[in-house]
Amino acid sequence: xxxxxxxxxxxxxxxxxxxxxxxxxxxxxxxxxxxxxxxxxxxxxxxxxxxxxxxxxxxxxxxxxxxxxxxxxxxxxxxxxxxxxxxxxxxxxxxxxxxxxxxxxxxxxxxxxxxxxxxxxxxxxxxxxxxxxxxxxxxxxxxxxxxxxxxxxxxxxxxxxxxxxxxxxxxxxxxxxxxxxxxxxxxxxxxxxxxxxxxxxxxxxxxxxxxxxxxxxxxxxxxxxxxxxxxxxxxxxxxxxxxxxxxxxxxxxxxxxxxxxxxxxxxxxxxxxxxxxxxxxxxxxxxxxxxxxxxxxxxxxxxxxxxxxxxxxxxxxxxxxxxxxxxxxxxxxxxxxxxxxxxxxxxxxxxxxxxxxxxxxxxxxxxxxxxxxxxxxxxxxxxxxxxxxxxxxxxxxxxxxxxxxxxxxxxxxxxxxxxxxxxxxxxxxxxxxxxxxxxxxxxxxxxxxxxxxxxxxxxxxxxxxxxxxxxxxxx
Length: 475
Ligand code: UDP
Prior knowledge:
By secondary structure, the protein is of the alpha/beta class. The protein has two domains: 7-132 and 181-227 and 449-472, Rossmann fold, CATH 3.40.50.2000; 241-299 and 312-442, 3-Layer(aba) Sandwich (Rossmann fold). The chain is built from 19 helices and 15 strands. The protein has helices at residues 18-33, 44-59, 90-99, 114-120, 133-142, 175-178, 183-192, 207-215, 234-239, 248-256, 276-289, 304-309, 320-327, 339-344, 357-365, 379-389, 414-425, 429-449, 454-474, and strands at residues 9-13, 37-42, 64-68, 104-108, 125-128, 156-158, 167-169, 196-199, 221-223, 263-267, 292-297, 330-334, 348-353, 370-372, 393-395. The strands form three sheets. The chain has a seven-stranded parallel beta sheet, with helices on both faces. A six-stranded parallel beta sheet has the order 12-11-10-13-14-15, sandwiched between helices. Strands 6-7 form a two-stranded antiparallel ribbon. The chain is globular and about 70 Å long. The two termini are 19 Å apart. Uridine-5'-diphosphate (UDP) is lined by residues 18-19, 22, 241, 267, 269-271, 296, 336-337, 339, 356-359, 362. Pfam families: UDPGT. Keywords: Coiled coil, Glycosyltransferase, Transferase. This is Glycosyltransferase. One of its GO terms (molecular function) is UDP-glucosyltransferase activity.
């Protein structure tokens, strides 16, 4: 029987940009739909990105609100690198928590300073890392490998204690796992003092890894995703995370003019900027593949002056865009695209992705197999899950982990791009099997978040636990 204590009050404190902010906002919306009074804590400039969807939720009666801090940090335009200092928000957060202590606060791990403030005030803190269970297990268990004894960065080793045989190389690991670094220890400490952690995934996607995270980790884990599925209307999908800066009408009209299952969607997330030489290789590979594509090109890497001068994207090969326009083969978009809408369009057959966890889940939910091109963060682990465990993707052949802002060493050539695109897009038994598998998983994703599903149950369980905790305090 549900306890009668009124709604629990949850605060959500997302990081200040793209891949971490978007799922946290969806998570707040999920908990509001479960009846928790959910408040999203953000800077004034960031609130503008998603306030429309929250207004719509409020109009439909959901208990959700935005609290904007009086302090701001420099506008990050959705592409906040993980080391942006958000500590200007420390005092406003402390004051808010003293005045209005919630039943719990969900904090993104990149607000490194926030753990102590919340801990001092005795408020249950739930950590949000943005990763799935598989990547989490890989990173946890890589710690037990003597990486220094490997012959080279490209020598494979087996990650111990995993349910599947997974080989990685040192070059695929984040630098902070390869060399002594305080970062993993700090994240671990953040979690050790926490009430538990949220995982944006669902049990049936990675069951053995979900069990490992839930049972062997020593802290509670609530697996509550895919949270993107809370975006049910076209408006929510279009404006999710941020208003699109491209003409979505034009994009949808173009997709409408294509045959079902015929277009490749190409995008590398909110943060990564590719160097112009790499963009050229992609352009040539795509053109040579003779497949239709829609490609979201963001500014190029590490060269602001080039970006300014070539604001129109002249870093693509000579005449490329004109040819794509004339033949109707490709649509090149610049800016922020409505990714959910694009992925769910019937014309989309595949997604060339950097394997960011949100993009991965969104592709899975849309039943779209992937071409995997991991570059940074935990993306190489996500690639293993996609291509070797779930078998719903083709590797492009990316080998070298990069810090989000470091020099590029390893370009992927046009032949590799063409070959991966053909493998996924040209009809074959292998491609068909991948599509069948991912569509099956997409159905499981939908069931997970519906009443009776595992993610639905985990969200309810947390709410009940918070209610019980509140009752115990009142006694
Ligand atoms: N995204 C989007 N439009 C864009 C680029 C990105 O909607 O033009 C969204 C995408 O749907 C996903 C998030 O931004 O939800 C990117 O997160 P992900 O974990 O895939 O990668 P990151 O940006 O963190 O590297």
